[in-house]
């Protein structure tokens, strides 16, 4: 039986090498952090199959690549560190000092400064990834969570879940400049590619606020209605926007749906049924595929962006949390 | 009337906190506003019980309230709001009323009350206090305060008995445990809890096969095996329901029953406002903050105190006012929402001032479920399937909301 299968693999790879020219050298890969398994799952985005599982630190949550995708940063919350994984060898090569209980982070466009929210002690920690040292800690509100850096690198924005604020930090001085009050329990922030708007989800408020970056005030607020789903269960968390600022995708938590917003029309055009308690989202490089992590069902859903249809769900580890795509 | 003397530890914490506070407040913060909150507690003599139970910590409620103050002040660094707590221990309801009158005379409004029903009624019926104060009940679960005796500006962050038993009943019905044997103590609270259970049974279609009152006086540590077996002897039931609020005998009912059936109520599977084992929706962070501060687990009274102060904090921030009247109007408005680690946004019922909230069902070491259970629907909020709903309430509460 075993021999039989390896023979088939050999045959398949021989066939692939024959067709080598027609097939792109490497398919895109989706990395998923599994919060309650202490692992990452890697999915091949062409075959839509799980190709490997990597053991990492305790309670991995936020994950993000560096600019050339050679390294992956992993918030290992219960190990109180941010791990650096060499993508090629899939080995942890360093543990960055991160402050206590790192949950989410964002990498500055300078590819050097990592901004980490420390959920347990109301600070944002700034780490220099080259020197591997903490260069600043900034006081923010209760339970800092979401983190984003503006495309021009000027602003770092952090959400505090229990103070219900967005904190605006100047990346040059690492000083807190302003606060924007939003709905209950802000979880995630995302800048549009042009840097003019900032999107923020409020999990318990059930809304998504669109903030004008120039004035740091709320421009528009979206709420969501899914027939048959009680409004209390609609809890927006992850947000991702297309580069052309045409569509916004919002993960609605225990409502088990992803909302699709047409930004020009300023309205929700579709709700996509995915797995249970959908948390975070990521688009692939040409934005043909959207991937959602579904915490309770322990899988990810792959969505075709053009037809806005769910293609497949793929089983990963327990409580998948973060999603990042490597081209 | 006595004022609590702060312990050296809490003094150190306060000093450290103030230093941190002043360091972190940047030039960007707005004009400083002080928001004083009074914590009134009436001295309570614990009733002796037959079994050796763990006593509720004396600082229950006060520690949770203080954590709420600390949490509000963390956000206050950015809004310029500074919350202060003054704690007062009183001997009876007259002293409680005197303390409240002195508080409002100084121009203050917010009072967190760890007081029994009689004192709450005395305060809320006092014309001056009722006009100027906003009272948050964090201790008393009496349904009468939510049904026939509700008073304007008397809000409840602790769930009522009816909310607790409704939460439990929904779970039992979802398990199809419909036949209940009700075992209760002799005390007034036991009768009230038992009455709430009967109402819940009627509401959700359970059948109480019999209600029995505990008559014995022995220390059950020595005789439970025999006594409870006989006390719970019956032909058939799905579950024993216990109504024993002080823990006189209830701890010995699970496993000692005539039939091999689970036990629930004030012991066994217990509905409560809060429990240390809750960790979802970021609750782990609140639990950590509390145990760091108080060096013990957070209980339902602490949580109710924390809720009261957080509710004030939310209303102050959103209404941008520290005036009692304006804060009250905001608390009772449709805009008010409180995120409080139970997975839903909480708000006050406009018909009786009760904070609507999910009810965790726990045993001593784990969270088992949280009601409302799936499928119990309500036109306004699923949480309103727990406790007295608007049509069942008869009191002049709503008139107080403009």
From TrEMBL, chain A:
<dbReference type="InterPro" id="IPR011045">
    <property type="entry name" value="N2O_reductase_N"/>
</dbReference>
<dbReference type="InterPro" id="IPR051200">
    <property type="entry name" value="Host-pathogen_enzymatic-act"/>
</dbReference>
<dbReference type="InterPro" id="IPR011964">
    <property type="entry name" value="YVTN_b-propeller_repeat"/>
</dbReference>
<feature type="signal peptide">
    <location>
        <begin position="1"/>
        <end position="27"/>
    </location>
</feature>
<dbReference type="InterPro" id="IPR022456">
    <property type="entry name" value="PQQ_b_propeller"/>
</dbReference>
<protein>
    <recommendedName>
        <fullName>PQQ-dependent catabolism-associated beta-propeller protein</fullName>
    </recommendedName>
</protein>
<dbReference type="InterPro" id="IPR019405">
    <property type="entry name" value="Lactonase_7-beta_prop"/>
</dbReference>
<keyword id="KW-0732">Signal</keyword>
<dbReference type="Pfam" id="PF10282">
    <property type="entry name" value="Lactonase"/>
</dbReference>
<dbReference type="InterPro" id="IPR015943">
    <property type="entry name" value="WD40/YVTN_repeat-like_dom_sf"/>
</dbReference>
<dbReference type="Pfam" id="PF02239">
    <property type="entry name" value="Cytochrom_D1"/>
</dbReference>
UniProtKB/TrEMBL annotation, chain B:
<dbReference type="InterPro" id="IPR022478">
    <property type="entry name" value="ABC_transptr_sub-bd_PQQ"/>
</dbReference>
<protein>
    <submittedName>
        <fullName>Branched-chain amino acid ABC transporter substrate-binding protein</fullName>
    </submittedName>
</protein>
<comment type="similarity">
    <text>Belongs to the leucine-binding protein family.</text>
</comment>
<feature type="domain" description="Leucine-binding protein">
    <location>
        <begin position="59"/>
        <end position="217"/>
    </location>
</feature>
<keyword id="KW-0732">Signal</keyword>
<dbReference type="Pfam" id="PF13458">
    <property type="entry name" value="Peripla_BP_6"/>
</dbReference>
<dbReference type="InterPro" id="IPR028081">
    <property type="entry name" value="Leu-bd"/>
</dbReference>
<dbReference type="InterPro" id="IPR028082">
    <property type="entry name" value="Peripla_BP_I"/>
</dbReference>
């Amino acid at each position: 039986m075993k021999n039989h299968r390896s023979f088939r693999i050999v045959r398949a790879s021989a066939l692939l090498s024959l067709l080598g020219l027609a097939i792109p050298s490497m398919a895109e890969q989706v990395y998923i952090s599994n919060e309650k398994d202490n692992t990452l799952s890697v999915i091949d985005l062409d075959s839509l199959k799980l190709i490997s599982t990597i053991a990492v630190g305790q309670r991995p949550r936020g994950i993000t690549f560096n600019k050339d995708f050679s390294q992956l940063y992993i918030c290992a919350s219960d190990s109180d560190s941010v791990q650096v994984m060499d993508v090629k060898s899939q080995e942890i090569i360093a543990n960055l000092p991160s402050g206590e209980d790192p949950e989410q982070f964002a990498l500055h466009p300078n590819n050097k400064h990592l901004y980490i929210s420390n959920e347990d002690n109301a600070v944002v920690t700034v780490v220099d990834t080259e020197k591997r040292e903490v260069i600043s800690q900034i006081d923010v509100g209760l339970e800092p969570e979401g983190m984003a850096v503006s495309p021009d690198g000027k602003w770092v924005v952090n959400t505090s879940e229990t103070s219900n604020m967005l904190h605006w930090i100047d990346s040059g001085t690492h000083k807190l400049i302003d606060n924007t009050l939003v709905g209950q329990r802000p979880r995630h922030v995302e800048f549009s590619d042009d840097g003019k708007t900032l999107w923020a989800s409020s999990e318990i408020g059930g809304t998504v606020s669109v903030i004008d970056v120039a004035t740091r005030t709320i421009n528009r607020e979206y709420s969501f209605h899914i027939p048959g789903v009680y409004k209390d269960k609609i809890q927006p968390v992850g947000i991702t926007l297309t580069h052309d600022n045409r569509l916004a995708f919002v993960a609605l938590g225990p409502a088990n749906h992803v909302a699709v917003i047409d930004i020009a029309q300023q309205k929700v055009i579709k709700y996509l049924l995915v797995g249970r308690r959908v948390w975070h989202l990521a688009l692939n490089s040409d934005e043909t595929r959207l991937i959602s992590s579904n915490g309770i069902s322990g899988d990810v859903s792959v969505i075709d962006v053009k037809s806005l249809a769910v293609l497949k769900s793929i089983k990963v580890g327990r409580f998948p949390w973060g999603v990042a795509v490597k081209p | 009337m006595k004022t609590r003397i702060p312990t050296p530890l809490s003094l150190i914490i306060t000093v450290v906190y103030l230093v941190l506070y002043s360091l972190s407040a940047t030039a960007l913060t707005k004009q400083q506003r002080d928001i004083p909150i009074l914590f009134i507690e009436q001295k309570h003599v614990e009733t002796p019980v037959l079994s050796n139970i763990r006593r509720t910590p004396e600082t229950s409620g006060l520690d949770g309230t203080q954590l709420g103050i600390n949490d509000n002040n963390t956000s206050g660094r950015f809004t310029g709001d500074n919350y202060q707590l003054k704690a007062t221990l009183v001997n009876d309801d007259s002293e409680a009323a005197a303390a409240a009158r002195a508080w409002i005379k100084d121009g203050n409004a917010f009072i967190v009350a760890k007081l029994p029903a009689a004192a709450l009624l005395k305060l809320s019926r006092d014309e001056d206090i009722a006009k100027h104060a906003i009272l948050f009940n964090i201790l008393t679960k009496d349904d009468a305060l939510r049904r026939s005796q509700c008073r304007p500006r008397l809000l409840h962050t602790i769930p009522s008995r009816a909310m607790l038993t409704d939460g439990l009943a929904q779970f039992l019905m979802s398990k199809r445990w419909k036949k209940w044997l009700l075992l209760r103590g002799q005390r007034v609270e036991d009768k009230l809890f038992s009455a709430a259970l009967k109402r819940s049974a009627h509401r959700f279609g359970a059948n109480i096969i019999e209600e029995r009152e505990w008559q014995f006086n022995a220390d059950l540590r020595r005789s439970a095996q025999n006594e409870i077996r006989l006390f719970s002897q019956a032909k058939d039931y799905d579950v024993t329901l216990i109504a024993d609020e002080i823990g006189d005998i209830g701890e010995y009912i699970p496993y000692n029953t005539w039939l091999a059936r689970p036990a629930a109520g004030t012991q066994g599977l217990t509905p409560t406002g809060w429990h240390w084992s809750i960790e979802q929706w970021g609750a782990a962070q609140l639990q950590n903050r509390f145990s760091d501060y108080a060096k013990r687990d957070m209980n339902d009274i602490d949580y109710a105190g924390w809720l009261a102060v957080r509710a004030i904090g939310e209303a102050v921030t959103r209404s941008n006012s520290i005036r009692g009247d304006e804060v009250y109007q905001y608390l009772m408005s449709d805009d008010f929402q409180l995120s409080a680690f139970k997975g839903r946004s909480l708000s006050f019922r406009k018909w009786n001032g009760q904070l609507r909230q999910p009810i965790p069902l726990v045993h001593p070491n784990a969270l088992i479920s949280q009601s409302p259970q799936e499928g119990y629907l309500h036109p306004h909020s699923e949480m309103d399937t727990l406790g007295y709903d608007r049509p069942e309430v008869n009191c002049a509460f709503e008139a107080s909301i403009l």
